[in-house]
From TrEMBL:
It comes from Acinetobacter rongchengensis. NCBIfam families: ABUW_2363_fam_LP. The keyword DNA-binding does not apply. It comes from the Bacteria. Coiled coil: none annotated. Keywords: Signal. This is Tetratricopeptide repeat protein. InterPro entries: TPR-like_helical_dom_sf (IPR011990). Residues 1-20 form the signal peptide.
Amino acid sequence: MTIKPLAYALLATSVLTACSMTPVQQKPVANEPIVYTEPDLSPPFYALNPFNYDQPPVFELELKKASAQPVNKLEVTDPANPSKKLILDSNKLIIPTIDNNQRAMKYAVLAGENEIDITAIDDFLQMVEGKARHYPPQFTDRQERKGFESKLREVSTQLDQLAAHPNASFDILIRAFKASVLGRNLDLGSSYTTKSLGYAQRILKINKEDPEANLWFGFSLSEGGGQKEAQPYLDKAIKLNVQEAYLSSANNYISMEQKKNAIQTLKNYKVKYPSEAEVADRLIQEIEKQGRYNVWQIMKNPAQAQ
């Protein structure tokens, strides 16, 4: 057999190289796991408890109540591995999914029939509220907003499926409503506006006196262009002692170019909540000078102006 010169040369070179290569001692690589740490969320823009700015968020208050309740531990099969068992030893936030026209939060390690563990959903909705309860939403990080939008679509779809039941519980409807308003504020599509109106009507048909429903329906109508229709709901929320209803009402009056009513509402706010006097006075001053067109508008602090 004849080997062509080029092929032979390549073969010879590879053999010589292999024979003359000096072994290289490699340092062992530590087999350490790569740990990915998610970046911290930026601080919320809106107060996390619209009922009372001095109180912790409602979600955190519910968690405290859950932790204070006795725990009935339960052994269950691990859904990820049927051959293993899990011990459930911490209370979760549980709500009924159907046939209940009142708020009916309970605390247990596991949801029962026609119930759902709402802990993770409430946690997420609270985070979105801090950024997007009002329009326009307040994000400083584009990627953070995209993450919220993606997760909100998922959560809203889950709540929509539960709310589709004709006897969906009040607890399910109020969360589906809030998720829809947040979706509208995040510009996820016109369907979120349509859904929010439908949920609001169902909720108020069940309970016209619910403070949260009146606040959310009021400001969502106002920020969607229905200022005249919004005012009665905001007035009712004020009567029901919802702190943020004052600011939403003042914002609504500004939108209707009723400056005197906006200023009077802020004066009433200052009387009701003395700790907010500085905020109210600044808003009044900026409204009088016609420099403010929205309560939630970010304006530079005059003390920091250059």
